[in-house]
Structures are given as structure tokens and as C-alpha cells.
Input
Amino acid sequence: MSRPVIITCALTGAAEITGKNKAVPVTPQEIADSAIGAARAGAAIVHIHVRDPATAKPSMRLDLYQEVVERIRQSGVDVLINLTTGAGARYLPGAEDPLVAASGTTLSRWQKRVEHVAALKPDICSLDVGSMNFGEWVFVNTPSHLREMATVIGQAGVKPELEVFDLGHIRLARHLIDKAFVAQPPLFQLCLGIPWGAPATPEAMMAMRDQLPAGALWASFGIGATQFPMVAQAVLLGGHVRVGFEDNLYLAHGVPAPSNAALVEKAVEIIKQLGERPATAREAHEMLHLAGR
Output
């Protein structure tokens, strides 16, 4: 029998990509409409960042998150909502004094990074486990902040999706699980290909999968040209998948994707070609042991 594979669609992300593909959603209505389209194409989960409607730059405004979530919920489309908590973790040291942040730093109090989760109570939220060099800046997620954020997430009845970018992050995630900051069964997202984390290769995916605790559910993604090869690899290794404009702007080499739904449709095709099928939102809800809907 075929296995239900959960597809997450990461709709817009926080990178400067809106000028590279005009289909990337920016306003709350565009992001919500893109989520609805992705769900109808086969995504069981939509992963949400928000952007300033005037500038298209990443934002942490609660009112923008609230509008997106309300529009999706009021649409009647059955899809699980996953809000990011990654915003507010970027640090760039100043050239003259590294203790003074340079332009581009977004580092915020941990309380601000989970404010929207506590207020809106999505089904899932990301929790980026561990600090790392992320391109030219540092992505800061200290153990103490992760413990505090995980506590607030748990109190809100939300399931954390543990985003891990390297093997050491899995060690820290396992510590959080062992100390009961994250409830069983844990959900992991293996994030591959981001400079300077683990590469998007079968070997890296297998190495990270093999370090997960028993009973963990997991998905994985690759960025750019590796997005669809990593979809196939994750399915073959027994995991779930993620696609979307946050990670990749193209359907094929030189062919911009017209929508998030088109990226989901291609993932659905790959999953079916490998003998499996996309999971419904209800099936994903049961597999992830989420709170009642």
C-alpha cells in the first residue's frame, strides 16, 4: 500500500527574492491566497513568514500574521498552519566594533519571536535549533532562548517543528526532547543546502536522519536546484517533504515557477511516481499527534 507523504509549502520566506520572481507573495492577501492555492494543489501544511506590504522586506508584525492566518482559516480550505519563529535571529557585527550591530541585523528578544505563536495558536511553528553562519550573517539561537521559546510554544498547545541545519543541531534538539521541553513524538525538518549548513546531498540527509531519536517524524528540503531531487530523496528514505518559494523559485532550469501551487504539483507528481501519495491535512494532523481541531 502507498504511504501518505506530508507536503509542506514554504510560501515566501525572508530572503530578498521578490525581485527575482514576481509571483512571490508579499501582502497578507497574496500570502493567504498562495497558501490556499498550495493546499488545493496537495500541500497538507503551509509554512508562513510575513512581509511588509510597502517594502516587501521581512516583517515580524503581529497584525500581518493575524490577517494571513484569519484569511486562511476563513477560506474553509483544510490545511495545517505553520508559523515561523526564525525571524529576529540575524546578527551582523559592525566593522568598527563587533559588539555594535551592523545594518541588516534583526536580532530580537526571544519573547518577540514567539509573540504571534502565543496569540494565534497555529497547528505548528518552526523552532530553529542551533546557531550557525547563515550566508554572511550569524543565525543566533542560544540554548537558553530555545528552552524559553519551546516552553511558550508548548503552553500554547502548538507543535514545534525542529529545524536542524547540521548534526550538532540534532544533538541540541535531542537534549530539548530529553528534558521535556519538546513533547513526543518530535517533528524534525532537515534543512539542506543553506550556506553554511549541511549540503543538499543524499549522504547528508541519511547521516542526519540516522541521528534522529526513535519515533521522530521528519521531513527534509533542499534549496534552489536541489529542491526536487531532495523531494525524491526524502520520499525514498521514508520522510516527508517541503517545497515553496522560500527555498526555490524555479520549476526547472530557467523556468520560473508561476506559483507555489505549481511547485506543490511537481512534488505531488514525484511522490506518485515513487509509488506513494500526498497526505491530506487530516492525515497529517493524525500522524503528527496534534491537538484537537
The first strand starts at residue 4 and ends at 5. The domain at 4-287 is CATH 3.20.20.70 (TIM Barrel). The chain has a mean pLDDT of 96. The chain is about 35% helix and 20% strand.
